[in-house]
């Protein structure tokens, strides 16, 4: 019988530091799906829109790790974090630093939806999934236990304001 081994975040960081396209989710290591042109374009456009609209009020990171102790370290497509940048000079961001988490999903849609339970349990206040398959923005708010109480579907062409910036609608499509 094969032995199953679960990793903690410290061990994962030590053993796999610098290895791209890996996520630690609940102690298990996942190789992330390859990223296609639509995914790259959507992430770049969202990054640009967020940078312009939020300026110095938030820090935007792209495909960077989020440390969720003790057994998870996903790499969301975009994180909108509490400033200042210097706060992350010696440590990775953790859930209490996150204002908004965004996943862009094409072939990874089911995997990204499966991570919602982890994000809710960690208390991340708002998660957006840009669903490229259906051309919709899925907005999840009000984490409670392992789920989000509110789910909203936003059609293409309609901007959405994050909870942390209610007067700053973000174009997503």
Task: Describe the protein's architecture and organization.
It is built from 4 helices and 8 strands, in the order αββαβββααβββ. With 173 residues, the chain is of the alpha+beta class. The strands form 2 sheets. Strands 3-4-5-6-7-8 form a 6-stranded mixed β-sheet. A hairpin with a 2-residue loop joins strand 1 (22-25) and strand 2 (28-31). GO terms for molecular function: endonuclease activity. This is Uma2 family endonuclease. InterPro entries: Nuclease_put_TT1808 (IPR012296), Restrct_endonuc-II-like (IPR011335), Uma2 (IPR008538). It comes from Thermus tengchongensis.
Distance between the termini: 48 Å
Query: How would you sum up the major sheet?
Result: 6 strands, mixed
Helical/strand content category: alpha+beta
> Could you estimate the helical fraction of the residues in percent?
10-25%
Q: Can you give the mean pLDDT?
A: 94
Form type: globular
If strands are numbered along the chain, what order do they take across the biggest sheet? Answer: 3-4-5-6-7-8
Query: Could you give the count of β-strands?
Result: 8
Pfam families: Uma2
GO molecular function: endonuclease activity
Keywords: Endonuclease, Hydrolase, Nuclease
Organism: Thermus tengchongensis
Outline the fold blueprint.
Layout: H1 9-16, E1 22-25, E2 28-31, H2 37-54, E3 59-62, E4 78-81, E5 98-105, H3 109-114, H4 116-121, E6 126-131, E7 136-144, E8 147-154
